[in-house]
Amino acid sequence: MKTYITSLFIVAAMIASGCSSNNKNQASKESHEHAEGDGHDHSEGDGHDHEGGHSEEISFTKKQAEAVGLKTETVTPGTFSYVIKTSGQILSAQGDEATIVATSNGIVSFTNPSISDGAAIRTGEAIVTISAKNLLEGDPAAKAQIAYETAKKEYQRAEGLVKTQIISAKEFEQVRLRYETAKTVYEAQSASMTKNGVKVTSPINGYIKKRLVSQGEYVSVGQPIATVSQNRRLQLRAEVSENYFKSLNSISSANFQTAYDNAVYKLSDLNGRLLSFGRASGGQSFYIPVTFEFDNIGDFIPGSFVSVYLLSKPQANIISVPTSAVTEEQGLNFVYLQLDEEGYKKQEVNLGQSNGDRVQVLSGLKAGDKAVVKGVYQVKLAAVSSVMPEGHSH
């Protein structure tokens, strides 16, 4: 009995000891939890939230800005025309282009075998010579000379015979006609005859637009050899979908962008004017031609294809920025704003229409903002390199 009671005391002591240990563990746990929530949580409540506030500011020093030639533009609402974007082609204006044709049958030899499209040429300058000396049909220039000399002798003989009435006046007229024809052919070729053949010259000053034959190729009389363009005035022909037909009568001007220099040109700066727009460009086409004319004061290539921005109804109080101010990342568009002398901010924007030079901003900017329009790429790089690590986060 005494042994049994002693055992009960031992069990009771062990239970009490276990309860005390559990209480201490619980208190320690609560104390630790209190320490984690006492305002020292650096990941949520210490005021170093790097997702907002000053952490969005991009540091770009004044010295860096000067080095890259950084420029800004103050956002100001203004007029922005409704834009119809399409494709088009630059063409030579009528009267500014001439086709050089062969004046004789024979083999073509370019005066300068390396002459190519775009080469400058003067009025009266020989482009090719045409020779038939080694052809079976004979040299037409030599044949023309022989025909002329024969007809001339026959004509001089007929003059004496008609006076003595040995031949009739009708027969004399036939002889005279053959002589005049042979003389015309001979004189036309003798003026351009050289020891190498008949030379063919350009009728106007300009540039070789296109060579239509190759060195050593056989040509016939009247066959086109090359086209020459003066390039004083050019035409811009845009092809517009029939869906925009009702908007065509309000088109006033256009901008266009070439593929070879990516520059955007404004017809308003090139003395451009609208010539016409048709109802259809062809029986099998669903596009309407719109034609402009402008001064060729740039390095434009007639025949080249361009992107065209037709400018229609002007809209007032529209916010826009130069296309150079906009960057794109994963389908989103951004503009970098200058906050102060050395502080910048990346601002998401929603864009509207573009006229090639400027783009409409639907949201994200307000009047008075200073948008970076030159040096955008450098500011973007600075934004990436200035991201601060979250060193206080647990």
Automatic annotation (TrEMBL):
Point to the regions of Basic and acidic residues compositional bias: 27-57
Give positions of region: Disordered.
Answer: 21-57
GO terms for cellular component:
cell envelope; membrane
Per UniProt, what is one GO molecular function of this protein?
A: transmembrane transporter activity
Q: Which InterPro entries match?
A: CzcB_C, MFP_Cation_Efflux, RND_pump_MFP
Supply the alphabetized keyword list: Transport
Q: Which domain of life is it from?
A: Bacteria
All copies of domain CzcB-like C-terminal circularly permuted SH3-like, residue ranges: 319-380
Record GO biological process = copper ion export; plasma membrane copper ion transport
Q: State the family it belongs to.
A: Belongs to the membrane fusion protein (MFP) (TC 8.A.1) family.
What is the name attached to this protein's record? Cation efflux system protein
- The source organism is Bacteroides graminisolvens DSM 19988 = JCM 15093
Classification from the root reads: Bacteria, Pseudomonadati, Bacteroidota, Bacteroidia, Bacteroidales
